[in-house]
Amino acid sequence: MKFLLASYALILSLGVISLISGNHYFANIGGFLSAIGFMLVFFKDRPDDESEQQIKMRRYWYIVFATGILFSLIFGSFWNTHMGNMEAR
Predict the structure, then answer these.
(1) Residue ranges in 1-89 assigned as alpha helix (H)
(2) What does the alpha-carbon distance between residue 68 and residue 66 come to, in Å, rounded to a whole number?
(3) In the UniProt record, does the keyword Membrane occur (predicted)?
(4) Helix, coil or strand: residue 48
(5) Per-residue pLDDT tens digits for 23-74
(6) What DSSP state is assigned to residue 85?
(7) pTM, full prediction
(8) How far is CA 40 from CA 66, 83, 84, in A?
């Protein structure tokens, strides 16, 4: 549970730092970490007889990584005017 909370705090802090500093790279790093985490949790081999605790923790991991991808979209991609070398005119 501590690792889950630390990951959530890291992703949220990257999003907030991106919001405060105006630098979209921090949010993109958080989104990248979340995408990797999503793949690790989703494609992990699960036993046939999972306990309720394991199912609940997997759901919590999905929520953490979905928050990171959402922050990456909001604070990273939508504010990034330099993507594809397109300047705002």
Answers:
(1) 2-21, 25-42, 52-71
(2) 5
(3) yes
(4) coil
(5) 888 888 888 999 999 999 989 888 888 899 999 999 999 999 999 898 888 8
(6) G
(7) 0.76
(8) 13, 27, 29
Domain that holds residue 69: 24-44+51-79
In the chain, what is the straight-line distance between the N-terminal and C-terminal CA atoms, in Å?
Answer: 47
Domain for residue 75, yes or no? yes
Tokens of 38: 């999503």
- pLDDT single digits (tens) 15-33: 889 888 878 888 888 889 9
- Between vectors from CA 88 to CA 85 and to CA 89, what angle results, nearest 5°? 120
Provide the token pair at 18.
């991106």
d(CA 23, CA 18): 5
